[in-house]
Amino acid sequence: MKKIIVLAMITFIVSCAELEQLVNSLPDGSTSTGTTQSEIIRGLKEALSVGTDTAVYRLSATNGYYRDALVKILLPKEADVILDNINKIPGGNKLVNNVILSINRAAEDASKQAAPVFKQAIMSMSISDALGILNGADNAATNYLKRTSYNQLLNLYQPKIKSSVNKNLIGNISTAKAWNDLTGAWNKFANSTLGQIGGYKPVNINLEDYLTRKALDGLFIKIAEEEKQIRKDPKARVTEILRRVFG
């Protein structure tokens, strides 16, 4: 498996600058070596396809979200009041840690579904789309994928996240239970006489919606990282089409 991932990473890291030069050199649709504009676009699609597979693979692995500070999912901002008053909840710190680990596990579980959606968006890419990516900003490919696949991913992730949060991902505790234990303990305090006197408010958040959107945010952050590699770090070409295009 390690060899497969290394191969995938090497294949994906192809310079967009080189792609642009090659496309611009094709006014008649081919080069002196017989490489056509169509084949160059195929090379771009292949690189993007392998790159998105790599990003999805990384995130869907255990700790793919949880151990990556860039995409790690934390509690919703509305829950800051809980963190600020964690000492008022018996066992509060343990409850918070369980929730954070659980919501990240749910995101890792759900992200396994993303690769086919990206494949469809990439394979549906027109020549004008591809040239726009080649000539566009550093995040042009990421923006294209987000524009063409976000709604489909959202619809795909929502039921998967719902299933994941109710699954016992850590021991015998589901994400939903960990969240309900935490917010239930806080809301009990907030609704108590002491809590009302202190002006504390209960926390009521749609965890599934929050988690779905944060999981997708992290996914596109990792895609953007891969795109940066395309544009700045040319490496060996390991498939036939990439050898023909860039050889």
| Terminus-to-terminus distance | 27 Å
The biggest beta sheet, please? none
What does the radius of gyration come to? 23 Å
Task: Tell me the number of helical segments per DSSP (H or I, 4 or more residues long).
Answer: 12
Number of strands: 0
Average pLDDT confidence is 77
Element string (H = helix, E = strand): HHHHHHHHHHHH
* Dominant shape: elongated
Structural class: mainly alpha
Tally of distinct domains = 1
- The percent range for strand residues is under 5%
Range of helix content: 55-70%
- Which regions have little confidence, pLDDT < 50, spanning 5+ residues? 1-20
Can you walk through the features of this model?
This protein has 247 residues and is mainly α. The protein has one domain (2-246). The chain has helices at residues 2-12, 16-24, 37-60, 80-84, 92-110, 115-123, 127-135, 140-165, 175-190, 193-197, 207-232, 240-246. Helix 2 (16-24) runs antiparallel to helix 3 (37-60) and helix 5 (92-110) crosses helix 8 (140-165). The longest helix has 26 residues, at 140-165. The model is unreliable at 1-20 (pLDDT under 50).
